[in-house]
Amino acid sequence: MLVEVLISFFLVVSGIFGLIGSLGLLKLTDTMQRLHAPTKATTLGVGGVLIASMLFMLLVKDHLSFHELMITLFLFLTAPISTLFIAQTHILMNLKRGDLPDTGREHSWSIYDDPPDQAPVGEENAKG
Amino acid sequence: MLKRIFPHPLLSRSLLLVWLMLVNKVTPGNVLLGGVLGILVPILTSPYWPGRPGLKRPFLTIPYIFIVLWDIVVASIQVARIVLFKPRNQIHSQWIVVPLDLTSPEAITVLAGTITMTPGTVSALLAADGGSLLVHCLHSDDPDDVRDEIKTRYEARLKEIFG
């Protein structure tokens, strides 16, 4: 009984956050603002379903499943990268250099400026 | 010699672990197959990942993961309230420039990923010399506060982990 209540709780929470994520897409107007909605939907929305699934496997089916942890891992690896792609494409296509704040350094942002030699170059640079 | 077989020992170990979790059953055959993958994949991908970064204090990653998970829950609720109850014209989105103290590409990647995964902030661009990060914030009245929180909460901890 208690187990079922707990599992339903996580399912309902994830449903609510998934719904709010989609509502966010509808309500927010700017592309950059809209990017925030899917990151939220994946983290708490999917997270809730995964916790519920793990609890169900562990407490009802009596065996431990690691697949949910793997889904979490792959989501955490892929979501920031796709978000970064969309953000950089949006900045490149729709924004001008003046729309962005200054880096506060000698070099400008990676999509406008070439990286200096022998400098620490992040993964984002290669993609930009 | 050992370095040529295991260009990234940590990656080899993670691949073996991920493989065992994917098949969800520990048998000698699966361990062997995971071991082969753990050796082959790092060798094949090592031209694209020339550095050999080590974690200076690997055990600090565990509290870091829990801090990030907790922040995701708290920030999700905050963002949900903004989406549901704030009128469109009162959402003040802005760009925030975070100057970085981290220098290793791996550490910066983890920081950018953390910023994106915590709701309310999305990392968008890196400066050409890797010295600052452009972050988009969904709603904030005090951008300096958000920047300081990223620096003290995540960057300082990553600095300890990566050394």
Structure explained in plain terms:
Chain A: This is Multisubunit potassium/proton antiporter, PhaG subunit (TC 2.A.63.1.1). Chain A has 128 residues and is an all-alpha fold. Chain A has one domain. Chain A has helices spanning 2-27, 31-60, 67-94, 123-127. In chain A, helix 1 (2-27) runs antiparallel to helix 2 and helix 2 packs antiparallel against helix 3 (67-94). Chain A starts with a helix and ends with a helix. In chain B, helix 5 crosses helix 6 (143-162). Chain B is mainly alpha-helical and 163 residues long. Chains A and B meet through helix 1, helix 2, helix 3 and helix 4 of A and helix 2, helix 4, strand 1, helix 5 and strand 2 of B.
Number of domains of chain B: 2
User: What is the count of DSSP helices of chain B, taking H or I runs of 4+ residues?
Assistant: 6
* Helix-strand category of chain B: mainly alpha
Give Rg of chain A in angstroms.
20 Å
As a percent range, the share of strand residues of chain A is under 5%
The global form of chain A is elongated
Name the beta content range of chain B.
5-15%
- SSE pattern of chain A, N- to C-terminal: HHHH
**SSE order of chain B:** HHHHEHEEH
Number of strands of chain A: 0
User: Could you tell me the number of beta strands of chain B?
Assistant: 3
Number of domains of chain A: 1
Number of helices of chain A: 4
Which spans of chain A have pLDDT < 50 for at least 5 consecutive residues? Answer: 123-128
Largest interface: A-B, 58 and 44 residues
The spatial strand order of the largest sheet of chain B comes to 1-3-2
Q: Oligomeric state of the chains? A: heterodimer
Q: Secondary-structure blueprint of this entry?
A:
The complex is a heterodimer of chains A (128) and B (163).
Chain A: H1 2-27, H2 31-60, H3 67-94, H4 123-127
Chain B: H1 2-5, H2 9-23, H3 28-45, H4 61-85, E1 94-99, H5 105-117, E2 121-126, E3 132-137, H6 143-162
Antiparallel strand pairs in B: 1-3, 2-3
Helix pairs in contact in B: 2-3, 5-6
